[in-house]
Design a protein that fits this description.
Length: 161
């Protein structure tokens, strides 16, 4: 998996460290372990996770200078939010999801990977957007495989400053 990540990130012009690659390996191990107990993803083969989750999520960094406060709406198993946090440790990220069992998984990953400036929020997007703690508080909003673009825009726009 490490060689695939190196090749993929390099082809996108994304810099990485050995520590980041170790974090992706640990993330993968936790994903597979927890996926046996609950459905986080249908994609579990190491090479597929590397390309279809990790590298795919990182692709936005080729086009966007992600910085500041970021929210991942409907983060699920942490895609793309945790991937972006690993590659851009300087960002503050909020991972929002409607299922508490996924939040529990994310909390475990955050702890095991030693990530800082990451918050997890158990909430539906519609409800979180009405909460003054999150409404118009973020520089960027990311999301992946949540809804069609028009619906996703309605979910995400209220979070942006």
């Amino acid at each position: 998996m490490v060689e695939l990540l190196k090749k993929g990130f390099s082809s996108l012009g994304i810099s990485y460290t050995d520590e980041m690659l170790d974090q992706f390996e640990a993330y993968y191990q936790l994903l597979v372990e927890w996926n046996e107990k609950m459905n986080l993803t249908a994609i579990t083969e190491k090479e597929d996770v590397a390309t279809k989750h990790f590298i795919d999520c990182a692709t936005c960094l080729k086009f966007v200078d992600l910085k500041g406060d970021v929210i991942d709406v409907g983060t699920g198993a942490g895609f793309p939010g945790l991937v972006l946090k690993i590659l851009k440790p300087e960002i503050n990220i909020c991972l929002l999801d409607s299922l508490n069992k996924r939040i529990n998984f994310l909390d475990e990953v955050i702890s095991k990977l030693g990530l800082t400036n990451v918050t997890t929020v158990h909430s539906r997007a519609e409800d979180g957007a009405q909460n003054a703690k999150y409404r118009e508080k973020f520089d960027f909003c990311v999301s992946r495989a949540v809804a069609n673009l028009s619906t996703l825009s309605e979910y995400c726009l209220p979070f942006i400053k």
